[in-house]
Structure formats: structure tokens, C-alpha cells
Amino acid sequence: MKNEIRAYNNILELVGNTPLVKLNKIAENLTGNYYAKVEAFNPGHSSKDRIALHIIEQAEKAGILTEGSTIIETTSGNTGFSIAMASIIKGYDCILAVSSKSSPDKIDMLRSMGAKVYVCPAHVSADDPRSYYEVAKRLHKETKGSIYINQYFNKLNMDAHYKSTGPEIWEQTGGQITHLIACSGTGGTISGTARFLKEQNPNIKVIAVDAFGSVLKKYHETGKLDTNEIYPYRIEGLGKNLIPGATDFSIIDEFIKVTDAESAHTAREISRTEGIFVGYTSGAVMQAIKQLDELNTFNMNSNVVAIFPDHGSRYMSKIYSDQWMEDQGFLNTETVEETQEVQY
Ligand code: PMP
């Protein structure tokens, strides 16, 4: 008798069910137990696979998307990659309107995944008809039967995490999670995951990580958008200069800010000490944990779950490049020496 073939029907069946991995060396001097939800195990290498698939499947159920329809979004990042991947399998056209600030590497990557990419000028205001927001909106209007994912304002974003990330963490921790720490960009990850977890146990503390230069923390504290908080920063995918409709601020207990430099170093430290090759915002989450530990947030019985959103390979020319780190002023001589190649 032949053994059965155990294969997935297509790559999308691998979205979700990412592993929870205990953090060892990097957490050695911290109080409590630390676990990372490693979202790079998604086939598109980030948590955005979950929202792309969920939003597309909901549109299919509603009869909006049928074979040959078009999916539109404004992103050069992880979400764009995930939508492009799902579009290939499901037979949709994928149009991504991106800013001319996006690196050629990223644009090539999206085109390699079959997406049609419109590169729009970066230095025009959001309401300028040439901006990537306006181009996406126009294309959506002009293309019959298209959907515009609009991840910052789409409630299905948090719903994807409510239905998948939250239950997975609850099950993987046997209900013993005490703290959830995650980055807030659109806010979908932290809001949806936290809502599910707090429904199981309202005592779970939910801490969102924000960037210096972003308005989220101040908005959470005051209910007001303070434009003085806005200035450029390097971390991509974390923080925002507007208030995203996809964030449920009421479910988040606290926001904490992290710097570009410390987050970059901490991402490199995770890769070096845990062997988990992570992106910039995973460094931000871990950096936030270190700061929270110094503030005595945790005790010996704390079971802290950190969400590591994506894979390090997307940051080779950034945080994993010594040259880039040096150009940003992030490297001191000590760390340069430590990473120098040995000449034989
Ligand atoms: N990290 C990275 C690398 C991201 O691309 C994003 C999404 N913008 C986030 C973190 C934040 O996730 P969310 O949008 O669900 O808040």
C-alpha cells in the first residue's frame, strides 16, 4: 500500500498557526518568562498575511471579489507582499500604489510577485491627486468590482487577529499569558489579539509599542491628536502621524515609546542571541520589554508574549548593514569592532 501524499493544496494554507518560541539568552537578566510569536513563519514572512487573506476572503463571501477582480492597496511593505501573494493563488489582479520613497528592492520584490506597482511622488500632500492615497482611490473608483484594502481604516484588520492570533496565543500559552506586548502601526494586531485575550481573561495587561515621532501614545493618554509629536523616524511599520481607525485604543492599557537606535541594536541582538532572524519592529518590541522590566512591570510569574511581526531579510540594507547603521549614527566604535571581519 502506498503512503498518502501529505502536501498543502497551496501556499495560503500555511498562513497563521505561527510558533510561540521561548526567549532564552536575551531574557536571561529579565524578571519573568518571555515568549515570542514569530510571525516570520507565515509564508509571506509577516503577520500581514493574516489580514490580507482575511479581508480578501470576507470580500469573496460578500460577493464583491470574483475571479479576475482587482485588489488595490497603498503600501510597499509587508501588506503589499501578502496581498500580491494571495492574489496569485486566487487569480486577482493586484495594484499597489507606493511612494517614490520606497526602495527599488521593495518595488522589484512586489513586481516579482505579480503586482502592478504605481510609483507616486512622495513629496506631495495626501490630498494631491498624484499622491498614492489619491491614486489608489481613483483606481478603486475606476475599476469595477475592485476592493481597496485600506488597512489603516479597515475593521477587518483587527478582526483577522481577533479570529487567529488571539486564539493561537491563548491556546499556545494554555491560558497562562499575563502580558501581551506588540507594535502599533495600523493597530490591527494589538487590538484584535488583545480583544480576544481579554475576553478570556480581563486581567491580561496589553502594552502597545510606539515610536518617538508618532502621535499614538499621546492620543491614548489625552484623546487628542498632537501634531507637535510628529517628526521623522527610521522604524518602518510602527507608529503613525494620524489616528488609525483600525486601532481600538480602549483595549490597550499602556503605550511605550522606543528609539530607532535601541530598536535596531535589539533586533540585531535577537538574531545573534536567539538565532531568530527578525525585522526592525521585533527589535522595538524587545526593546520595550527591556524598558518595562527596568520599571518593574513584571514578576517571576509573568508570562510575557511578544509579537515579532516580520523577518530580518527585508532589512539587509538597513539594520543589518553596518554601513547603514553607521550612516544613522547608531554604531559606536565598540560595536563596529565587534562585528568586523577577521582577515586571514
Ligand atoms: N511591524 C511591521 C514590520 C509592520 O509592517 C507593521 C504593520 N504596519 C507592524 C509592525 C504593526 O502592525 P499593525 O499594523 O497590525 O499595528
Task: Lay out the secondary structure.
Elements: E1 20-22, E2 33-38, H1 48-61, E3 70-73, H2 78-90, E4 93-99, H3 104-112, E5 116-120, H4 132-142, E6 147-148, H5 155-163, H6 165-172, E7 179-183, H7 188-200, E8 205-211, H8 216-222, E9 254-258, H9 260-274, H10 280-294, E10 303-308, H11 322-327, H12 333-339
Parallel strand pairs: 2-10, 3-4, 3-6, 4-5, 7-8, 7-10, 8-9
Antiparallel strand pairs: 1-2
Structure characteristics:
single chain, 344 residues, alpha/beta, Rossmann fold, six-stranded mixed sheet, four-stranded parallel sheet, globular, binds 4'-deoxy-4'-aminopyridoxal-5'-phosphate
Q: What spatial order of strands do you see in the largest sheet?
A: 1-2-10-7-8-9
Taken together, the total number of domains comes to 2
Q: What general outline do the C-alpha atoms trace?
A: globular
- Total helical elements: 12
Cofactor: pyridoxal 5'-phosphate
InterPro entries: Cys_Synth/Cystath_Beta-Synth (IPR050214), TrpB-like_PALP (IPR001926), TrpB-like_PALP_sf (IPR036052)
Protein name: Cystathionine beta-synthase
Organism: Maribacter hydrothermalis
